[in-house]
């Protein structure tokens, strides 16, 4: 259900696939709009009754780049963050990046890392050489 926003209907952009900032309320966690990465000003809203239901909804996707937990309960935020399958989780904030922390996700969002020490791993080749004394002959 469209809460606000939607396609641009007037002006030059009306002939394209352009959306104004849009909020959609969605009842089905398996809907394409929830399951696919939407690169645009479109946000989905899902209503939940329990903490467990919210965690299950958050994890019911093949992606896991980032998440935000909005609450005044510090214990809840930490408890939920441990169970949400995402590479970065913000508390009462969103999209705050710091150079010293890696950025990367889980599942299909988990290829590679940006920033932080983990970034260097993409440029390192590891070699293991094992020598067992008494096994090698001249």
UniProtKB/TrEMBL annotation:
- The protein, known as: Aldehyde dehydrogenase family protein
Q: Which PANTHER family match?
A: ALDEHYDE DEHYDROGENASE (PTHR42804), ALDEHYDE DEHYDROGENASE-RELATED (PTHR42804:SF1)
Coiled-coil region: none
Oxidoreductase as UniProt keyword: yes
Aldehyde dehydrogenase domain residues are 2-129
Keyword list (alphabetical) reads:
Oxidoreductase
Q: What is stated as this protein's family in its record?
A: Belongs to the aldehyde dehydrogenase family.
The upper taxonomy is: Bacteria, Pseudomonadati, Pseudomonadota, Gammaproteobacteria, Moraxellales
């Amino acid at each position: 259900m469209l809460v606000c926003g939607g396609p641009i209907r007037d002006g030059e952009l009306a002939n394209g696939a352009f959306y104004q900032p849009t909020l959609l309320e969605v009842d089905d966690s398996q809907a394409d709009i929830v399951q696919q990465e939407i690169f645009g000003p479109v946000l989905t809203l899902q209503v939940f009754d329990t903490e467990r239901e919210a965690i299950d909804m958050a994890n019911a996707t093949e992606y896991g780049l980032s998440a935000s937990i909005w609450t005044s309960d510090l214990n809840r935020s930490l408890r939920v963050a441990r169970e949400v399958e995402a590479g970065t989780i913000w508390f009462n904030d969103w999209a705050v990046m710091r150079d010293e922390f890696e950025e990367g996700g889980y599942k299909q969002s988990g290829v590679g890392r940006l920033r932080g020490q983990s970034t260097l791993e993409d440029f390192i080749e590891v070699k293991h050489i094992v020598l067992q004394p008494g096994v090698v002959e001249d």
